[in-house]
């Protein structure tokens, strides 16, 4: 008989995007490095401070921009209720990380005590999943908008302009602005700001690069502007955010 839940740790090299679908509820976390997820025209980054809860049978696209170690749990749908939504990305609390670590030391629910631990982990993370993280970037639907978003991401550290991006994808700036509004509900500048914060999160998760270096590397010329944008989207300063997944 298959276990009601089991935990596993795996290390992956850098990999291009690939589709993933599992037949159990999937709590996906990175214990070192970061993962990128994409589904329904949106994209998320998963450093160690965050997790994704994916409903059984839900298809997602996963990419690994740098080597990563994952610490994940699969739950039998008969063991736990359905997640609050088909896919949710949220910040892990210290309690959730402690339970995740403890479940990893047991591996499966074969022992009664371990079954209680996995049940507690599900209860805590299911509750956290009711408050999704706001740091999400639209992926776009039309080829032109997807190209514009990709090009913007590739040039985050440069002094780029919206007009340059528009002409590079073969659209007039006004036409591209309408695409952003129609397909994402956001302006290009708002998407750019989110991309810069996501790239900064990725850099913060990757090592101990000074925060000023990270800020300039993602395109900010002012540390105060970077801190303000970061705090607006995450609710924390870059220093506090880094501490949230390097401590505990």
Task: Offer a concise description of the structure.
This protein has 248 residues and is of the alpha+beta class. 44% of the residues lie in helices and 23% in strands.
Describe the structure in your own words.
InterPro entries: Homeodomain-like_sf, HTH_AraC, HTH_AraC-typ_CS, Tscrpt_reg_AraC-type_HTH. By secondary structure, the protein is α+β, with helices and mostly antiparallel strands. It folds into 2 domains: 5-128, Regulatory protein AraC (Jelly Rolls, Sandwich), CATH 2.60.120.280; 139-246, Homeodomain-like (Arc Repressor Mutant, subunit A, Orthogonal Bundle), CATH 1.10.10.60. 44% of the residues lie in helices and 23% in strands. The chain is built from 9 helices and 10 strands. A 5-stranded antiparallel β-sheet has the order 1-8-3-6-9, covered by helices on one side. The protein has a 5-stranded antiparallel β-sheet with strand order 2-7-4-5-10. The radius of gyration is 19 Å and the shape is globular. The two termini are 34 Å apart. The model has no long low-confidence stretch (mean pLDDT 88).
């Amino acid at each position: 008989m298959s276990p009601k839940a089991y935990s596993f740790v795996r290390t992956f090299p850098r990999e291009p995007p690939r589709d993933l679908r599992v037949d159990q509820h999937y709590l996906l976390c990175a214990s070192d490095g970061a993962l990128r997820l994409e589904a329904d025209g949106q994209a998320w980054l998963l450093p160690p401070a965050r997790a994704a809860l994916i409903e059984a049978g839900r298809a997602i696209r996963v990419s690994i921009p740098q080597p990563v170690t994952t610490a994940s749990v699969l739950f039998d749908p008969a063991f736990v209720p359905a997640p609050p939504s088909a896919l949710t990305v949220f910040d892990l609390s210290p309690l959730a990380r402690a339970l995740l670590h403890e479940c990893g030391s047991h591996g499966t629910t074969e022992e009664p005590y371990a079954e209680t631990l996995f049940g507690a982990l599900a209860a805590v993370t299911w509750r956290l999943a009711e408050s999704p993280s706001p740091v999400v970037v639209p992926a776009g639907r039309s080829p032109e908008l997807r190209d514009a978003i990709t090009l913007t991401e590739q040039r985050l550290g440069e002094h780029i302009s919206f007009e340059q991006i528009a002409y590079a994808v073969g659209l007039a700036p006004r036409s591209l602005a309408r695409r952003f509004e129609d397909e994402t509900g956001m302006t290009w500048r708002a998407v750019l700001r989110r991309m810069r914060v996501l790239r900064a999160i990725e850099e913060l998760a990757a090592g101990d690069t000074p925060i000023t270096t990270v800020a300039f590397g993602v395109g900010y010329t002012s540390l105060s502007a970077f801190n303000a944008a970061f705090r607006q989207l995450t609710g924390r300063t870059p220093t506090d955010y880094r501490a949230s997944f390097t401590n505990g």
